[in-house]
Amino acid sequence: MGALHDGHLCLVRQARKIAGESGRVILTLFVNPTQFDKAEDLENYPRTLEDDIALCRNHGVDLVFAPDPASMYRPGHSVTVIEASLTHQLCGATRPGHFDGVCTIVLKLFNLTQPTAAVFGKKDYQQLAIIRRMVRDLNVPVSIEGVDTVREPSGLALSSRNARLTKQQHADAPRIRRALLAAQSAHHQGETSAQALLDIARQEIKSSKEGARIDYLELLDADSLQVIDPVTKPAVIATAVFYGSVRLIDNVELG
Fold first, then answer.
1. Percent of the chain topping pLDDT 70
2. Which of 8, 98, 170, 187 is catalytic?
3. Distance of alpha carbon 148 from alpha carbon 107, whole angstroms
4. 63-65 and 26-28 strand pairing
5. From CA 107, how far away is CA 88, in angstroms rounded?
């Protein structure tokens, strides 16, 4: 959705690797109004189109597709793509309708650009899982590639929202990553109780002196995104944490 940073450029590099020198890399850039649940978030979302295009030009993107909202959503538009299983947890539980907007716009962009492969970051693990399910269930002829989260040296996941943190909040926010890694380490050492693993992560986040507030912290099956306990097959611990009005997400995979 723009405000490109190194995390996005990592996706571009992976896309180029998949396409090869003779293939084409397309970057779609669109601040999608239907996935925002708050009007002020849509209004305040950073829009840096000229800078984004310059970054794309310098990093091997062949085409930037940046449509305007009026061309993507015609007056009276009435068809929406709804996923009915993977959207009930995590961001889907706290942001009603968000993933309806995501699925609808991603399918529209797939139809318009006709890619053979599409690259998404794992930072939004739920989004990646939902897009994979949509592609599978609707027989969309595109391969979905997930790329590991790109991080600051402190471990904080790169995000355009990091710029909205105060200096103190930015220094404190890497505890999100530490919390998830502590739970992951406990699992590697043999802990299979979902509640015990969640408690390890929760304790670290709640020890923040900067008022970090957990929006959600869940441990789910890696494929179905349903609650799993005990943790005896691949799973994911995902969280969203507020610092003031800034909402940061992160996750780690288990198993």
1. 100
2. 8
3. 23
4. parallel
5. 20
Length of the chain: 255
Cβ–Cβ under 8 Å, residues 104 and 81: yes
For residue 194, what is the domain's CATH number? 3.30.1300.10
Q: What are 64's strand-pairing partners?
A: 27
The verdict on 133 and 15 lying in the same domain is yes
Q: Is 8 a catalytic residue?
A: yes
Residue 231 belongs to a domain: yes
For residue 86, pLDDT beyond 90? yes
**For position 90, what pLDDT does the model report?**
95
Beta strands in the chain (DSSP E): 26-28, 63-65, 117-121, 143-147, 213-221, 235-243, 246-254
This prediction's pTM: 0.91
Q: What is the mean pLDDT of the chain?
A: 95
Helix H or strand E encompassing 103: helix 98-113
- The pLDDT of 14-24, averaged and rounded, is 96
Residue with token string 């739970």 = 183
pLDDT at 46: 82
SS3 64: strand
